[in-house]
């Protein structure tokens, strides 16, 4: 099929600070994509209006006739009901409650629309076009500012009662661990997310440990990225912090293996995109140490996401094609 004809899905992946948008054909090819920075807290109707403007602008720049767009897929963080298309609340996107995104998108774009939680969308994208292809039981773990998971059973999202399954970031990994945003102590997210890695680095510096992390930050904020750069340059404190994060992630993945027995676990999100090559083997070793003999790790695979930041975008497009 020529790239100039045929139906297309419009799609977006709305993060904490930026949005990725694009047009994807039924074969999973991204024909055009763009990103933009989200403003501070705004009303859902304004957010959708800006999204529609951006999509129309991208279509016209890419010479894509709007008539080809047959549906819209919307991926974002937040609590939502995907059936009714209502997002109850979305972190970092204003204090609004219970916004009918599915109908707002439909009105603004003139096409049927679907919404999905970001980790679930990433799982759908990776199972469609990435390392989850062919896996009946597949888990995608996002390790970034937060930590979450999308669980797929034969291509369908496992949601649990009231749709709150997959919150692996808020499982307790260390009962004596640090306070988490959720109010609990020792959650995976408080131990191995990007902010948790940065916090450990700041703690090590306050303790007076010898490390180049401060210098690398050059007066700016110490982030997980700074720690990763220091680790790559041989900084022992940075390497120790990443090794700890890998150990905690390994504990969580061993729990996933034991409880759900997926064929493939994919690792994505900002931390894995930035440091996957440093973290993957230590994570695999931690999983191997902790899984019982009945978990056949020869036939189970722990892999880095093949799609990177496009997993969520492709998963959002998949929402459109799944239902046609
Ligand atoms: Zn928590």
Q: Can you describe what's shown?
A:
The chain is of the alpha/beta class and 324 residues long. It folds into two domains: 124 residues, ATPase, nucleotide binding domain (Nucleotidyltransferase, domain 5), CATH 3.30.420.40; 174 residues, Nucleotidyltransferase, domain 5. 40% of the residues lie in helices and 21% in strands. The chain is built from ten helices and twelve strands. The strands form three sheets. The protein has a five-stranded mixed sheet, sandwiched between helices. Strands 10-9-8-11-12 form a five-stranded mixed sheet, sandwiched between helices. A two-stranded antiparallel sheet has the order 5-6. Strand 1 and strand 2 form a beta hairpin. Helix 1 runs parallel beside helix 2, helix 5 runs antiparallel to helix 8 and helix 7 packs across helix 8. The protein is globular and about 60 Å long. The mean pLDDT is 95. Bound molecules: zinc ion. The site of zinc ion has 6 residues, from loops.
What is the gist of this entry?
The chain has 324 residues and is α/β, with parallel strands linked by helices. The protein is built from ten helices and twelve strands. Helices cover 40% and strands 21% of the residues.
In round numbers, the mean pLDDT is: 95
Radius of gyration equals: 20 Å
Number of domains: 2
The CATH class of the largest domain, by name, is: Alpha Beta
Query: In this structure, how is the largest beta sheet organized?
Result: 5 strands, mixed
Major sheet: order of its strands? Answer: 3-2-1-4-7
Order of helices and strands: EEEHEEEHEHEEEHHHHHEHEH
